[in-house]
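Tutorial, part two.
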Amino acid sequence: MKQLETERLILRPWQEQDAEAVFSSYGQSQVVGPAAGWKPHDTIEETRAILKSFMEKNETWAVTLRLDGRLIGSFGLHPDPMRGREVKARQLGYVLAEDMWGHGYATEAAKRVIAFAFDELRLEVLSVIHYPFNIRSRRVIEKCGFQYEGMLRRTHRRYDDVLLDSCCYSMMREEYYAARGNAL
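Running the prediction step on this input gives:
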């Protein structure tokens, strides 16, 4: 992944040595994982396996603070499961350590990733979802200008066997450029 930068953040490729920071800052959190639909990590080995997958797929960035290099989360552009391969589409996904919530980091990183998606990858559409109870994620999505498409019911069975609905949003390339005051 190409390194991306914002005023306060650096989004960079993952490194094997990031596992301990992920595990201690948010991987084992009983709040962060469930809000994003994944099981909190039980061991550092589990975190290492997940990071290895991130590095192999090459669609996710490690998010670090520019000030001190602290790893605080991840952002990714994943295949969009709802759109066919003939559409240049990706789905935005993200997670931040709980102590980083409420500081504007998610919105700041999301806006940079959105710019990369449209300006450099030349996507036609970018989608994002959140679960109905994840109000913080909804606020980030709305601040970034995504349009609400609707709710798909019972789309995901979480690790604890709970069936979750997905609130679905998208942004079209032309909407992104119109909001910036640019033509395609």
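Helices lie at 19-27, 32-36, 44-57, 105-120, 135-143, 173-180. In part three we will examine how such features are distributed along the chain.
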